[in-house]
Write a structure and sequence with these properties.
Elements (H helix, E strand, L loop, with lengths): L2 H37 L4 H20 L7 H24 L5 H25 L6 H22 L3 H11 L10 H11 L30 H27 L3 H8 L6 H39 L4 H14 L5 H16 L15 H28 L4 H15 L1 H19 L2 E7 L2 E8 L2 E10 L2 E8 L1
Antiparallel strand pairs: 1-2, 2-3, 3-4
Helix pairs in contact: 2-8, 4-5, 4-7, 4-12, 10-11, 10-13, 10-15, 11-12, 12-13, 13-14, 14-15
Length: 463
């Protein structure tokens, strides 16, 4: 064997060892990275929230740009403006938060109205052939009503406190007499399900004794709360640091990119920034339209403007999470409709006694309108995705993975926009080599995976 062939053989073995080393190192790095992410998973959500708030804060910070004012003072002025707005918003919202008396009154009214509606429903069922239907309804709803009554029942301390408020307590006027009558009626409300009597002398079957679950010690609970609190402190810190950032973080990461990819990296970052901005603006506009539509619908049903606006704002803010905004609006709206009295709908043909049914229909219609109109056309146009693709993605995600599938479908639209913003222009296949030319605006990145000695090597260069 000649010296040249010997040298080539050694060089080939050296390359194989180097590739095996790199592959082993990459595998260990991935395992270690996954382990660290799993251990630090409690920090992921605060980091995302802080970064998202900083991203939303950036347009406000850009409004305060002045050449004669230092960057730190500009950011402080922006923080002061946001803090002032949040202070007035919280002060306004706090006025609508029920106090102790209103909470007790709400529980009394809700329990009384639920039992009244249930008794009216059972009484309206015709006699005779419909006894089977009546029995089925009572069999299914009576246990639910008993559990609801137990949930809304006042404790001894709450009953004594309610009686004090009924006569005037803590500087507040006495509670209306009809609510006191509701309270007394609730006290004599019994169970709808009659317990089965066991024969005399018979021993009722009992469930096998199970060992009592030991409660975690207070020290462990305190440590858990402390760790969660410490993790969420990270969100405002990230928001502050990113708010004061003047491009240093971006310049640091760009400095790590080789010179041949400098312009390409800037273009990709611009595309990413534009796509995320479009997605967030589209989501905010969609949430605003949902909240506005729901508010106007509740006002037309006769619900007071203040309560309708509160329900619309809460539902609109939570609409970014699929189904959550609709569920919250349904629970709060139906809860108020059950205790509302002297309601006068602005639509004359509506019956005030069926207000709860109208609220359910309204929430369902708004949810359908969101899926069919707002998301496809408002959010879809913001990220340049066809409305039909949005509808299919949402329905398909809900069928495959339920709620998480719908949430993934929302973020998938952003990923789709990012991929289409920098999509592959062409793919060329040559013997022993696959070339993929990735085009971002006017720049091209050629990725050539080559199979050599059983190991894939990735060679990248500028086309």
């Amino acid at each position: 064997m000649s010296t040249g062939q010997n040298f080539e053989e050694q060089e080939r073995e050296r390359k194989v060892r180097r590739k095996v080393f790199y592959l082993t190192f990459a595998t260990l790095a991935l395992i270690l990275g996954g382990f660290l992410v799993w251990k630090l998973r409690i920090l992921i959500l605060p980091i995302i929230v802080g970064a998202l708030l900083a991203f939303l804060f950036r347009p406000v910070k850009d409004r305060f740009r002045a050449r004669w004012l230092p960057h730190e003072l500009q950011v402080l002025c922006s923080f002061a403006l946001i803090g002032l707005v949040l202070f007035f918003a919280f002060n306004t919202f706090r006025k609508h938060i029920p106090d102790e008396e209103e909470k007790l009154e709400f529980k009394v009214r809700l329990k009384y109205k639920l039992n009244e509606r249930y008794q009216q429903l059972v009484a309206k069922l015709p006699e005779g052939k419909s006894n089977a239907v009546k029995g089925l309804i009572e069999k299914e709803l009576s246990p639910l009503m008993d559990k609801t009554n137990q949930l809304l029942a006042l404790t001894t301390e709450e009953r004594n406190l309610f009686l004090k408020y009924a006569e005037g307590y803590n500087g507040k006027p006495p509670i209306q007499s009809k609510f006191v009558d509701y309270f007394r009626a609730n006290q004599i409300t019994g169970n709808y399900v009659i317990p089965e009597k066991t024969p005399t002398g018979a021993v009722s079957p009992t469930a096998p004794a199970t060992p009592a679950l030991t409660q975690p010690p207070a020290a462990q609970e305190g440590a858990s709360l402390e760790s969660k609190f410490s993790a969420w402190i990270l969100a405002p810190l990230i928001f502050l640091f990113l708010g004061f950032d003047n491009g240093q973080i971006r310049r640091f990461f760009i400095s790590l990119v080789p010179n041949r990819y400098f312009e390409l990296s800037l273009t990709v970052l611009d595309e990413l920034d534009d796509a995320i901005g479009r997605y967030l603006r589209g989501t905010l506009m969609e949430c605003f339209l949902v909240g506005l539509t729901l508010t106007l619908g509740l006002i037309l049903l006769g619900i007071p403007v203040g309560i309708a606006v509160a329900i619309g704002v809460v539902s609109g803010l939570l609409n970014a999470i699929p189904f959550l905004g609709a569920v919250i609006a349904l629970v709060i709206g139906v809860g108020y409709a059950l205790i509302a009295e002297n309601v006068r709908p602005l639509i004359p043909s509506l019956n005030p006694n069926d207000l709860a049914l109208y609220v359910v229909i309204l929430v369902v219609l708004v949810h359908i309108l969101d899926d069919v109109v707002f998301q496809p056309f408002v959010l879809g146009s913001a990220v340049n995705v066809h409305p039909l693709v949005v509808v299919i993605a949402i329905i398909g995600g809900s069928l495959i993975m339920g709620l998480w599938g719908m949430l993934f479908a929302r973020t998938e639209r952003l990923s789709h926009y990012l991929m289409t913003a920098s999509r592959p222009r062409q793919c060329r296949l040559s013997p022993g080599e696959i070339q993929l030319v990735w085009r971002v605006r006017d720049f091209e990145l050629e990725i050539c995976p080559r199979f050599e000695f059983g190991i894939w090597t990735w060679l990248s260069h500028r086309a």
